Amino acid sequence: MTTERPPTIDPLAAARWQRLPLSDSPWLHEEVARRMEERLAWIMRQPQNWVHWEPQRGGLQAQALLQRRYPGSECFLALSPEEIAQGAIKKIAKPWWHPARWRGGLRYGAVPPRGAAQMLWANMALHMAADPQALLARWHEALAVDGFLMFSCLGPDTLRELRALYQVLGWPAPSHEFTDMHDWGDMLVQAGFAEPVMDMERIELTFETPQRLLQELRELGRNLHPQRFPGLRGRGWRERLHQALQQLADPAQDGRLKLTFEIIYGHAFKPQPRIPVAAETALSLEEMRQTLRQRKPKEPGL
């Protein structure tokens, strides 16, 4: 298994995308967040402090759902860059007189406190990361021992209709490649997580016009493939694209244009760190405390 995944993301393009301002979270991201929030009902643990990773892209509406599920908990909003963060804070933060402000705390910043979070929530972020393994390492570092990660991202069947169309037309790929859920599971283990549980579903969206379809794709992300067309497209090519997209019309959907999105869900927890064993082993005071805590009985279920 290669250590480079996903293998087709241009880091400079990914950085530019992260800096683009947002007016609102994409509809699909909000819908995925709603479905992922329902999965928290399966988890017994009730975090008293947790991280919402980049809510401005992952789903601002999900913040209210999570605060309702964990009333009184403290939430750290991992926001960046600054201009995007300010817009998200204005939409999430309550006025001083609002009752919800007194039921739990909100903290803001680009980097969550190390080892403090009992849950890290990251919706639709991994598939746009130029270095996903580094991002997983940051999440692992932010979590406390026995804390858990909840995440979602796009899978390799996403935009399969559009990819096939571009291939027939001889055009460069319309998007970078998306990583398979089994590879995400392997990378979670490599990052130090334990017992990853992966799941997926496919969501089909239909659109009345090519213009509406392209608008939706622009809101969801950008093509970060290194081999994407390097220059600006002209008006003539845009008209060709609109005509070509008509081939995505689905008779079963009254001729509306159909696109498939594969959604991957995953969760895993941060276990006690393993202590290396040698002829002579030195432990810090904190490592000794963690070892003693590990002997205590744990609460059932993740």
Task: Count the DSSP helices.
Answer: 11
Alpha carbon gap, first and last residue = 28 Å
The counted number of beta strands is 8
Helix share of residues?
A: 25-40%
- The shape, in one word, is elongated
Structural class: alpha/beta
* Major sheet characteristics: 8 strands, mixed
Measured by DSSP, the beta-strand proportion falls in: 15-25%
**Average pLDDT metric:** 84
The rounded Rg comes to: 21 Å
Question: What pattern of helices and strands is seen along the backbone?
Answer: HHEHHEHEEHEHHEHHEEH
pLDDT < 50 stretches: 1-5, 95-103, 298-302
Describe this structure in words.
This protein is α/β, with parallel strands linked by helices. It has helices at 11-19, 27-39, 55-58, 61-69, 82-92, 132-142, 160-169, 181-190, 210-220, 235-245, 285-294; strands at residues 49-53, 74-78, 106-109, 117-123, 143-154, 194-207, 249-250, 256-269. Strands 1, 2, 3, 4, 5, 6, 7 and 8 form an 8-stranded mixed beta sheet that branches. Strand 7 (249-250) and strand 8 (256-269) form a beta hairpin. The protein is elongated, with a radius of gyration of 21 Å. Mean pLDDT is 84; it is low at 1-5, 95-103 and 298-302.
Provide the descriptors you would attach to this structure in a database record.
8-stranded mixed beta sheet; elongated; disordered C terminus; 302 residues; alpha/beta
Summary of the model, kept short:
This protein has 302 residues and is of the alpha/beta class. The protein has helices at residues 11-19, 27-39, 55-58, 61-69, 82-92, 132-142, 160-169, 181-190, 210-220, 235-245, 285-294; strands at 49-53, 74-78, 106-109, 117-123, 143-154, 194-207, 249-250, 256-269.
